[in-house]
Amino acid sequence: MNPNLENKLKEELDELEKNNLLRTVDNLRFISSTKAIDNDGNEFLVFGTNNYLGLTHHPKVIEAFKEASIYGTGSTGSRLTTGASFEARELENNISEFKNTESTLIFNTGYMTNLGVIYALTQENDVIFSDQLNHASIIDGTRISKASVRIYKHKDTSDLENLIKKEIESNNESNNKTNNKSNFFIVSDGVFSMDGDIAPLPELAKIADEYNCCLIIDEAHATGVIGKNGKGTVEYYKDKTGIDLTDSIDLQIGTLSKALASEGGYVSGKQFYIDYLINKSRPFIFSTALSPSTIASANAALNLLKENSEEYLSNLNENTILMRKLLNDAGLNMVEGEIPIIPIIIGPADLANRFSKELEKEGILVSSIRPPSVPKDRSRLRLTVMATHTKEEIECTARKIIELWNVLK
Ligand SMILES: *Cc1c(COP(=O)(O)O)cnc(C)c1O
Which ligand 1 atom sits nearest the alpha carbon of residue 134? Predict the structure, then answer.
């Protein structure tokens, strides 16, 4: 026992509590894709999941989970040993086809994918250019990497380009001495998880091309959510501009845990990248593979998305537009956008907390997001809309949020 450590940790927890920043874990059980109960049996309508298409409760997805469970409840080892299930290879091929890429590799979570890809591909003399609002898993990947990291202002491609030029200048000076070749990487979320806005992919692709950068895009909130068939950021811009940027991106990272209704992460791109990661990426090598059931359910969700993309995406879009319109018309302080992540900026952390607690009393679950996930004084309610919400549920929820806003603001 170390009494100093105990005191220090407890003080930090007290400090968090005092500032309304203490995080705790509740119990929740989803009885459908949109409804959950707590321990006491209270029922909630949930507007805060990443389950955009509601496929966690689709009979075909559940069936696929059950069917694969006869091959064992666990995968028994790393993919490189006994964890190499048929299901994993099948899903990887399916994702490659969906994303129109050569090859795909599954990791155990999206978080581990970012860590494992960024860490494995970057070396000491390299430079990673990372968007200021990238997801924590990208930030952590750059932190454990031996490369240097340059943060560019959110979506600001002139800032990015200036940082790259500066790096090239200083490289020219030092290269004369060391002769070490340095590689550049640009990493960005496709859809940003907190503000729900979309990366300027055409400009990023142009810069990556001009300066020979490896471009990595994290599609966690984009796959199954944007693009007319839910293929993500590339498709979103193809719909808009007619230009297909698939080959401009080196690696697309994503998760199986959001629209794909399961758990796990993936990276898609050229075969040599995937071969390299299989050999060098430690989270891939040293962790037990996902169970056949987990992978089979993601694959079933992906197949449903492929078959029904128009229906799913139009439901999701209509619901998003309806919720945004109702809240916007009532004058709430929202972050503008077109995707189903709808941030309502509240300001102080305690007020955001109270807002979410009051909604809970009304039977509606919406998470409050506080620092360090968002900047100080930008605490917010972070509403996410799903394809399986009904119009009535959206209208009723918007009404309650607006009523509360008028009382609490
Ligand atoms: C959710 C998320 C992740 C992490 O994915 P998990 O599968 O939940 O670990 C990574 N990147 C982004 C942008 C995310 O939103």
Answer: 13
| Nearest to 338, CA basis, from 250, 239, 263 | 239
User: Catalytic site residue 10?
Assistant: no
Enter the tokens of residue 334: 């929202």
Cα(first)–Cα(last) distance of the chain, in Å? 47
Q: Identify whether 281 is a catalytic site residue.
A: no
| Average pLDDT score over the chain | 95
* Cα–ligand 1 centroid distance for 220 (angstroms): 6
Q: What is the Cα–Cα distance from 141 to 203, expressed in whole angstroms?
A: 23
The helix (H) or strand (E) run that includes residue 152 is strand 148-152
* Plot region of 347 (φ>0 → left; ψ -120 to 50 → alpha; else → beta): left
Q: DSSP string of 196-224?
A: --B--HHHHHHHHHHTTEEEEEE-TTTTT
Indicate if the pLDDT at residue 178 is higher than 60.
no
Express each pLDDT in 377-398 by its tens digit.
899 999 999 999 999 999 999 9
Cβ atoms within 10 Å, residue 72:
12
Number of neighbouring beta carbons within 10 Å of residue 5: 9
Question: Contact, 305 vs 228, CB < 8 A?
Answer: no
H/E stretch holding 360 reads: helix 349-361
Mean pLDDT of 41-51: 97
Q: How far apart are CA 58 and CA 101, in angstroms?
A: 27
- Residues 398 and 404: their CA atoms lie apart, in Å, by 10
Q: Which atom of ligand 1 is nearest to the CA of 219?
A: 13
Ligand 1 pocket by C-beta < 6 Å: which residues? 109-111, 114, 135, 137, 189, 193, 218, 220-221, 255, 257, 265
Catalytic entry in 193, 257, 281, 291:
193
**CA separation for the pair 74, 64 (Å, rounded):** 15
Whether this prediction's pTM lies above 0.90 is answered by: yes
